[in-house]
From TrEMBL:
This is 17230_t:CDS:1. One of its GO terms (molecular function) is N-methyltransferase activity. It holds the Pfam family N6_N4_Mtase. The keyword Zinc-finger does not apply. Transmembrane segments: none annotated. One of its GO terms (biological process) is methylation. Residues 4-59 form the DNA methylase N-4/N-6 domain. Signal peptide: none annotated. The keyword Methyltransferase applies. InterPro entries: DNA_methylase_N4/N6, SAM-dependent_MTases_sf. Keywords: Methyltransferase, Transferase.
């Protein structure tokens, strides 16, 4: 760290990083920063419409190690830097790449899917909060992080997805009530069974998720990260591990 500038010694100006990123990649591709001590590369990726994967492989974090049942991989994943998991920068990209999941990106797609889903052929659909908010028919005073539609079971999951292994308990009680209100609202307008899904992605103990939500959610509404992956059929953890290790080796890094 440079004590005079309070920046990392190799940190480049934002616009220069943006130019460099755009010169070697295409929109939608993933930019990997193996030494993500700050957020400048992330900011440049956001400006350039690139996805971002940043990591700091020093140390080991037990919580992600529990999710992936691998200490080294857990340490790596736990250092991934992102603006917010709800922004979907890493999460949506990984889910879509590794599962039979379709990302709904427009209000028109969402409204057609939720009112006449028979003409859509994917098994699982992910609808981000920003799309729901722009729909005159489905928006509400509160929208969840995602709507997840499983065609096989005709079930629409009203999903609150958190990174880490705990919740902000000061807000969780109110969030639980807001989820119920949204469920009642959307249930009147869709031909699907609606269920609430609260996932604390980095938590393996359902009881702790329920407690974090002030016991305002039911056991069947609490999902661990592994259960969430199973729901959306994101089961290729070994393949995920292989890709991450290949990225690190390309960058000359070692676990």
């Amino acid at each position: 760290m440079d004590n005079k500038t309070k920046k990392h010694p190799h940190q480049k100006p934002l616009q220069l990083q943006k130019i460099l990123i755009e010169s070697v990649s295409n929109p939608g591709e993933v930019i990997v920063d193996p030494a993500a001590g700050g957020y400048s590369v992330l900011d440049a990726c956001l400006l350039s419409n690139r996805n971002f994967l940043g990591c700091d492989i020093e140390g080991e974090d037990g919580s992600y190690a529990r999710v992936f049942d691998n200490g080294q991989l857990g340490a790596l994943i736990s250092r991934v830097q992102s603006a917010s998991i709800s922004s979907g920068i890493e999460l949506e990209g990984l889910i879509i790449e590794k599962s039979d999941l379709f990302l709904v990106q427009t209000v028109e797609e969402m409204e057609s899917l939720l009112t006449n889903g028979e003409k859509f052929d994917k098994k699982t659909y992910l609808i981000p909060k920003k799309v729901v908010k722009n729909s005159p028919k489905f928006r509400f005073k509160y929208e969840p992080d995602y709507l997840i539609l499983k065609k096989e079971t005709k079930t629409l999951y009203i999903t609150e997805l958190k990174d880490g292994d705990n919740f902000d308990t000061k807000k969780s009680s109110g969030e639980a009530e807001s989820l119920r209100q949204f469920k009642n609202h959307i249930s009147e307008n869709v031909p699907y069974k609606t269920l609430i899904l609260v996932c604390c992605f980095n938590q393996t103990d359902k009881k702790k998720i329920i407690k974090g939500f002030k016991n305002k959610i039911k056991p069947e509404e609490a999902f661990t990260g592994q259960e969430f992956c199973e729901l959306i059929e994101l089961l290729k953890i070994e393949e995920c591990r292989k890709i991450i290790l290949e990225i690190l080796q390309t960058k000359g890094e070692r676990l």
